[in-house]
Design a protein that fits this description.
three-stranded antiparallel sheet, about 45% helix, about 400 residues, alpha/beta, binds zinc ion, about 15% strand
């Protein structure tokens, strides 16, 4: 059984009567979205396809985490703006100007770059823009609920922390109590300096209002019922959105999957605080790069956007790499002759399917990498490379040659 079928089976088993299943992916537009993040889209995409194959309704929900605070400015942005953008650290990505000036915001620039880049895959995405969700007050009830249950949330998060063994029981207890007294599941963005370097000094009894101060000197009263310029801390935010969107499945990088990682935290918050069973989770391995030389390798994949890869790989072949590999296994994107072997293998599987020789697993893999409205043509790769070097990879000439040998 293909791994996506196996996940789909578990999703249905858990909730057989659900009318429509939701498989989620989330991305922070903190910079160029690269091939590593692409696994976050490809994994639920195949699960959606597997659910649909079994006659179920399912969709791929993509969360743009543009309301996240900026932690650091990536190197390729720094190259454009210098250290000028350091002042935006702590601001949500949606409030930072586009470094290139061509979009409404920093976030919009990278969101559009990525969406354009993945257009050739023909994925149907149900996008949620988190700044819009928060700032229109959609989460207000959930935020207040989290504030009211902040002591319980603190205890959950605290239970995952590693304790400092050099400290005595009393010291640890005092530290725990002091942290609990000031813990807030929500951060307020300052109206003066736009950052979240704010500190809540007191909550009202019912948890709907607060007093806060900011690093910049600003201090004010905040009403969560009418002011939406605030955001839940990420592990609480993740759990809250699972319930809000009724998510059934979500993958995440293997760091999230660790026993003390975000998913483990959010899973308990989801159940105990929001009364929602956390979605089925699949941790995935990161992706390797093979055969890259020169300048690009030093940027450790930063420029390897789907757009760049589509210059080398057909959309189907890229999807196929993700589909045939179990999410827990790594594979390489090749910039050397490894790519010829990949094309060769892809062509063989495709031909086997078309000629009815393929086993079930191969059929599932090829089903997953099918792009709506496209029928990939296979070419004899070895011959293409041989003849290509003869005609210096002149495309019209190659097409003529291939037409003559009966492989248009
Ligand atoms: Zn732009
Ligand atoms: Zn401020």
């Amino acid at each position: 059984m293909h791994w996506s079928e196996e996940i789909a089976r578990r999703i249905i088993e858990r909730n057989p009567q659900k009318e429509e299943y939701v498989c989620a992916a989330g991305v922070s537009p903190s910079g160029s979205v690269h091939i590593g993040n692409f696994r976050d889209f490809a994994t639920p995409l195949f699960v959606v396809k597997a659910l649909q194959k079994q006659g179920k309704k399912a969709r791929l929900l993509v969360s743009w985490d543009e309301f996240d605070r900026c932690r650091k400015i990536p190197a390729n942005v720094q190259a454009v703006v210098g250290s000028d953008y350091d002042k935006y650290i702590g601001c949500p990505y949606v409030d930072i100007p586009d470094p290139w000036g061509c979009h409404e915001s920093y976030a919009a620039h990278f969101e559009e770059e990525f969406l354009k880049g993945i257009a050739p895959f023909g994925m149907e995405l149900d996008c949620r823009y988190q700044a819009e969700m928060y700032r229109s007050g959609k989460y207000t009830k959930d935020i207040i609920e989290a504030i009211q249950k902040r002591d319980e949330i603190f205890e959950i998060l605290d239970s995952f922390k590693t304790k400092d063994n050099s400290k005595s029981e009393e010291e640890l207890k005092a530290e725990h109590d002091a942290e609990k007294a000031v813990y807030s599941p929500v951060s307020i963005f300052c109206p003066e300096c736009q950052t979240d370097f704010t500190k809540i000094t007191a909550f009202s009894e019912d948890g709907t209002e607060a007093d806060y101060t900011c690093r910049c000197g600003h201090s004010a009263h905040f009403d969560f019922k009418t002011n939406f310029n605030c955001k839940l801390g990420w592990k609480v935010d993740w759990a809250m959105r699972w319930r809000y969107e009724q998510v059934d499945f979500e993958p995440g990088g293997k760091d999230h999957a660790a026993p003390t990682g975000s998913y483990s935290n959010s899973k308990i918050i989801s159940k105990k605080i929001f009364g929602y069973d956390a979605p089925i989770f699949q941790g995935y391995e990161f992706i390797g790069i093979k055969g890259m030389t020169g300048k690009m390798s030093s940027s450790s994949g930063l420029n390897l956007t789907p757009d760049t890869l589509l210059k080398l790989y057909q959309p189907e072949v890229l999807l196929w790499l993700y589909a045939k590999t179990d999410p827990t296994k790594a594979f390489d994107i090749c910039f050397d002759d490894g790519i010829l072997r990949q094309y060769f293998e892809f062509d063989k599987m495709l031909t086997d399917c078309r000629e009815g020789r393929a086993n079930e697993l191969t059929q599932d893999i090829m089903y997953n990498c099918h792009v709506n409205g496209r029928e990939p043509a296979t070419v004899p790769m070895a011959l293409l490379v041989q003849l290509g070097s003869v005609v210096n990879f002149n495309v019209p000439m190659l097409e003529t040659v291939f037409e003559k040998i009966g492989t248009p």
